[in-house]
Amino acid sequence: SYQRFTDCYKRFYQLQPEMTQRIYDKFITQLQTSIWEEISEIKQEGNLEAILNALDKIVEEGKDCKEPAWRPSGIPEEDLRGAMAPYLLQQRDALQRRVQKQEAENRQLADAVLAGRRQVEELQLQAGPAAGLAGTTHRAEGAGGRAEGA
């Protein structure tokens, strides 16, 4: 205030009260300008305006909330369990879905393998007598060919 300013410079105020008033006015103007410049610089450097706007938004959203805000109980294990339980349950459900999907895929693959084995067995049964004759013919020719060549 001007009164405190004059108390600090009593002697000067007594000699020149008008000059003291002008000095005070100039001092206040420069001080306000300097403060505003520094505040602007801080706001720009730290993205303070965006942060303060986000904080205002959080405060406004909190006013609409009827239930009390969460506060730590003082027992870290309980707080962590309470915070982690929903996440862990969600992860468990996702893993269970993944296991079910994998088991279904495994059943389809097992069915395909069994169908392929049945098909191979049927082909072996159909080609059984013919495959047996063809095998002996090749063996006989192979043995005869070597005997003649020797």
From TrEMBL:
Listed Pfam families:
Nnf1 (PF03980)
Q: What is the lineage of its organism?
A: Eukaryota, Metazoa, Chordata, Craniata, Vertebrata
* One annotated GO biological process: chromosome segregation
The entry's cellular-component GO terms read: MIS12/MIND type complex; nucleus
Q: Which UniProt keywords apply?
A: Cell cycle, Cell division, Centromere, Chromosome, Kinetochore, Mitosis, Nucleus
Q: Where are the residues of the annotated region Disordered?
A: 129-150
> Could you identify this protein by its name?
Polyamine modulated factor 1
Q: Which InterPro entries match?
A: PMF1/Nnf1 (IPR007128)
State the organism named in the record.
Loxodonta africana (African elephant)
- Please state where this protein is localized: Chromosome, Centromere, Kinetochore; Nucleus
